[in-house]
Each structure stands twice: as C-alpha cells, then as structure tokens.
Amino acid sequence: MQPERCPEEKIITVASPGILITIKFCFIIFMKKHISITIIILLEILTCSVQAQSVPLKEKMNDFNTPLYLMKPVYATPYGEVKPEDVKAVIDRVLTFLEVATPTKVINKDTKAVITDFSKIDKNSVLERGTFRLASYEWGVTYSGMLLAAQTTGDSRYLKYVSDRFVFLSEVAPFFDKLRKEGIVEPQMRQILHPEALDDAGAVCSAMIKAQFEGVKFNGRPLIDHYMDYIMNKEYRLADGIFARNRPQHNTVWLDDMFMSIPAIANMGKLTGDEKYYDEAIKQVTLFADRMFLKEKGLYRHGWVESMDEHPAYLWGRANGWAILTNVEVLDVLPENYPGRDKMLLLLKEHIRGLAACQSGEGFWHQLLDRNDSYLETSATAIYTYCIAHAINKGWIDPLTYGPVALLGWNAVASKVNKDGEVEGTCVGTGMAFDPAFYYHRPVHKYAAHGYGPVLLAGGEMIRFIKNTHPKMNDNAVQFYKEKQETNEPSFGVK
Q1: Best label site of 64, 102, 151, 366, fewest CB within 10 Å?
Q2: Same domain, yes or no, for 344 and 280?
Q3: What does the pLDDT read at residue 18?
Q4: Does residue 216 sit within a domain?
C-alpha cells in the first residue's frame, strides 16, 4: 500500500541562538490525526529551541580573560634553548656524510683500479674523486672543525677523519711530487706540492699544525714547512708588506686573505716558539684593519684597490667571517701579555658588536651584511656563531649580551643541515666586485664546500658553550644568567 501523500506541503524553519532547525511536514486540514502529529512536532522543536538558548556561547579571547603576552610565537627558525646531544646529532650527520664524500684512495685513472702500494704511483695515478677536494682551503676549515668536534664531543670518529686524510696525503705526497718534477701534475696534489696562492696554502697548513697539537701522528712537518715558505717568502705583497693580489685589479687587497695566511703564521709561532711569526701575524691583522675595517659600522669591506681614489664598501658576509675567524685564531695562540694582543682583542669586540647589530630575525646574517634584501647565507652565519660562542667561552665578551646572539645563530645553522648531513644555503666561491648585483646573485648550493667546516666549528663550540653558560627562557625570550635558574615559571625576576 502506498503511503498517503500530503495534499499540501509546507517548509517551516524554527530558529534560536546557536541552533537552526528546519522541518518539512504536512498540514492536513480535514484529518485530525495529522493535525495532532503536527502539534507534537512543533512542541518538540520549541523545546529544543529553548534548550539551545540556555547554552552559553564561548567567550572570545581578549586582554581581560587571557595573558596574551604568554602566547607562543611562530618563528621562521627554531627559537630557544638546545641540548648538547641535539647539537651533536646535527654535526654527526655532517660527519657521516663527509666520511663517504671524501675518499682516501689512489686509483688508476683509466681502469679505476685502487693502488695500495704507493711506490707504484705513476703518470696514470690520481686521487679518487669524491664530492670535495681533500687539500682545498675549504677543507682546511673542515679539518679544523673536525678537530674541535673531537675535543668537545669526545667522539673519536672526528679525530679519525682528520688522521686518515692527513696520513694519506703525507704518504702519497713524495710520489706525486716526483711526478710533478717530471711535468705530471695531479690536480688535487698540486695545491700541496706547488702552492700558487694563499688559498692553496694557509688553511690546510693551519689545520695540519693544529692536528699536531692534538697528537695526530703523520709526517706533516715537511708539508707544513713547505706551505709556510710560500706564505712568508713567495706570496705577493704591497710596499708595506700586506698580502695582496693582482686581480681583479693591480694591487688589490682581499679580506679573504686574512684567513688564508695569518692563522697559519700565528700557529707556526706556537709550533716553533719563534716570535717572528707572532709579530708577522699581528702586523698583518693591523694592516688589513687599517684598510678594510669601517669603525663606524664595526664591519670590514671586502676589497681594497690601491689605485682607487675612493674605496667602495661592500660588506660581504663570508669575507667578514674570514676576518673574525682570523682574529679569534690569533688570539687563541698569542701569549696572554704579548705586545699588540690587547689591540687585537679590542678589534674583535668592535667587530662582534657590529655583527650582532646585523643579525636577522631568523638568526641568519645576510649575504651583504647591511642590506636586508640580500639573501640569508649559511656559511657566514656559522662562522659568526662559532666565533661569538668561542669568545664567550674564552671570557672575552659577556654571555648576557651575546649569548642570545650565538644561540639564535646556531638554531638557524642547524635548520640548514638536512637529513643526509648536507649543508644548504651556502654561497658558492665568490670573487670581488664593486656593485651589489654581483653579491646579491651569487648562487647557493648544498655542495659549496665553504659551509661544512664552519658548521662543524659552530657545532663543536656550541657544545662547550651550552655546558659553560646558563640560558633560560623568561617571558618567552632567551636570557643568559650568571647562575643556573631552577624555576620553571614562564616569567620570573632575578635578584
């Protein structure tokens, strides 16, 4: 039997605050039972409406009912305290990647057969190519970073990385040098055996000296002496003795060359005990600062050309990194009361003050430090993080002032180490220019070798820094204290 259809359909909507009910029913004028059903439905709807009106609305968050200042911000990069094990996890990924990316083998370039008897090295022999070159200046920084990480983590893998490669290079060097004298040059070994620029010599030389300080057993002294002979006696200089180049212009001073020479010279002073190396290091720092350091900004220009009437100031990030890293390394080895050391410490403090003022809200520094529309760059950020943390650990600067800068910098750097241990956001090798477009548009690449050593240095130093200092979140901000703060209150005062 088909259900009886309504002779007239109506739609009635009953509304109340917080509820809206729509029902369709039939008015059956001549059928009492339908009228009764309709009345019952309406009564149920009205009851529901009354109940809905009795439920209070949730009050909107406002200044009266909520401590808005405790709301959690959303940061572009992580913000806050970190633990030593978190830092180590980051640099461990870098180490694991580099162990594979930088092999230590001699092979036949045609057959790819591995040569284990180095006395059989001949004109067809080459170092196996990995992702990075074993004797580049970038890898000099990487070796130094590995040595520091070995100190602060106690993990022997970091020291083994350096030992394996320095032993390898020192063992194959005599055989490739014999070929070089016959006119056969292995590209990677050329930088060791016949340096032609400070880039070829200083950073690896300095790392080899440090490795000797750390007890790494390898026949490194002949290589160190060879590097130092080039730096001290063969590199081009201007009339007052400052290191210089003849590119891109005649008699050009590059800020990069501070790091490519001076730390090795200072470390040679510590290795030999000969003060002439300390004196030369201090002299060079002073000569570079006189031409390149802008006291009003607390930053260095990248290049200086002798023939220019006016000297443009392009404040390139990584070059400033080389400058501050140089100053830190020289201060590390100079005897405490050595003449001129006080001036170098003052220069470091002025530079750190200038750099801190340029740090971005993301924790990074910009490619051109004073131009916030230039991109955020990883290698410079890592170098500054290392140097500022190191200066705090040494007691040269105040942790209350600069601790947050270092911690923010590390959190930024750590965000650029991907799951495979590759360092992203690093500017590739860069020449010199006197216009901003050149610097703004330098490419970045995860295989730019310049990023790896600085990340290891920053991570290694941050482990020591975290153990030595007392950071604590207070009012949503990172603060550093002279003593550990035991409270867990989100906002607290200190006596």
Answers
A1: 64
A2: yes
A3: 40
A4: yes
